[in-house]
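Example record for the data management plan.
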Amino acid sequence: MFTKKIDTRMKIVLLLFLFCFVLVVGRVFYVQVFDYKKLSDLAEDLWSRNLPIEAARGLILDRNGVVLADNLTTTSLVLIPNQITKKKEVSEKLAEILGVSVEEMKKHVYKKTSIERVHPEGRRLSYEIADKIEALHFDGVYLVKEAKRYYPYGNLLSHTLGYVGIDNQGLSGLELQYDKYLTGKQGAIQYFSDAKGNKLALSDIYTQPQNGMNVQLTIDINIQQSLERELSNVVDMFNPDMALAIVMNPKNGEILGMASRPDFDPNHYQDYDTSVLSRNLPIWASYEPGSTQKIITTSAVVEEKLIDLEKDTFYDGGSVQVENARIKCWKAGGHGAQTFLQVLQNSCNPGFVKMGQLLGKEKLFSYLDLFGFGEKTGIDLNGEGEGIIFPLSRVGNVELATTAFGQGISVTPIQQVRAISAVLNGGELLTPYVVKAIEEPETGSVLLQNKKKVIRKTISKETSKTMRMALESVVALGGGKAAYIDGYRIGGKTGTAQKAVNGAYLVNNYIMSFVGIVPSNNPEAVLYIAIDNPKKTALLSSYTTTPIARRILLDIIDALKIPKQEGGLEKDYIWSDKVYYNVPNVIGKTKKEATELLEKFEVEYSGSGEKVIAQSPESDERIEEGATVKLLLGD
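Corresponding structural encoding:
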């Protein structure tokens, strides 16, 4: 009986041992087969360390591949506190080299962490400082390479490009707008250490960083440099409160250039006030447009077939009475009898009051809506303004009259450029954009590509053709003569807008502007330039913005390789203008005959003989009156 009880107990104990053994074996099998990856990763985290290697941001390039935002390779300081054996000495030496207090450096050296990035004093070190640290050969002190954003052209396109912070994150402009594409993927050097943080004699593992995507812009650096140069000249000459310029391709919405003053150097953005950094004036500034808005009013009356620009007439006596307001023409005594085309050429306010009255407030303001005023254009930049268009309930006869010639509403420069582009391109209101494509840097494959985007139709192609002719006549025959370029069909419109503050207009404080089109028969570029409160100059846009615009238009012609055109309007010359003539063909003529034919030019002869055998410039080339024509004589 007693023996049976012992046997039973032994069987139970044996079964228990067998169960435990199976349980342990099963657990080991599970760990080795099913849970190995997880446990291996956890174990590796305990004894592996990563030294971060920062990826370079993607490049920003102009439409021709010129790099506008680049990267420089710099060095930053990283500490492994557990590996630092001479903490006091390391703290003192690093503090001396970096120019900080010992106490400040001790916060990094004695910190209880696996890896300590010395920030900000140890970031973006110069080669000289990096060499001094490297020469110390301290354990646990590492120098890792980082990419620092660099803008090789300094202030050029600064508000559009934006800038980045010390951690290479985009903070404004395209750097912010396209940050997720420009930011790369960080790499690392992985090493192994024991429980105390001491580095083990195992091979390091290098994970290469992945650089960000490249962003190609619609900007043409040659046009951009022209804008920057001329705006700098404006600042030097006129000391304005602000100045800005935009160039846009009216056929597809591409921005070819955009600049403003004040500007900043994104390499040293810390030196500027936030009010300068945050305001991209061409898309943010909002003000009364002045006479450039007359382009929209004229387009509306032509589209509605309310007037024929060349046949219908208007008599300007110098002013017009609208309820209790007398609206004056800029010309004392007025322009007298004129066609409505001349009303546009002369920028005659009473004539535009008549146009507004013919349209009525509902129709005029419907065109403002149609052309996109009072709404954002959707340009791919942050910080865009909307402008102010009054509701119809607040528009009386006086407001209708002033709106017709560009006073009483508030618009942004980019809104004006977009609207005028729609007038010129056959009536298509487009979304402007500055990014042409986003590309993978290694393969060049395109991840994103912006294309022409039509929002809506505004006017007919027939009205657009009429307006192109009308704006060409403004430059050839009207107030835009200073923008005339011989051999090219240039269109344009001047603008002078009185500034208002708290509902009252300032005295002798204007925004001068000009819209230029090249070529007017088939527009490739629309230029808008505005100068806010220029000093020491005549308060007329024809004397301030228009000559500046002409110089920019010449640069646009060169940059876009625009050929000369035929069939344009001949300029209505005044005594002070340079007059151009076609050079006649004098080859085969005698010296006397050639001299008579070239009476408008200086003639310079060379060689000997009875007749002209070569000439420079060649026949039919247009040159300035009084210019030299060289003739070669021979038999």
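Summary line stored alongside the record: Residues 240 and 527 are 19 Å apart (CA to CA).
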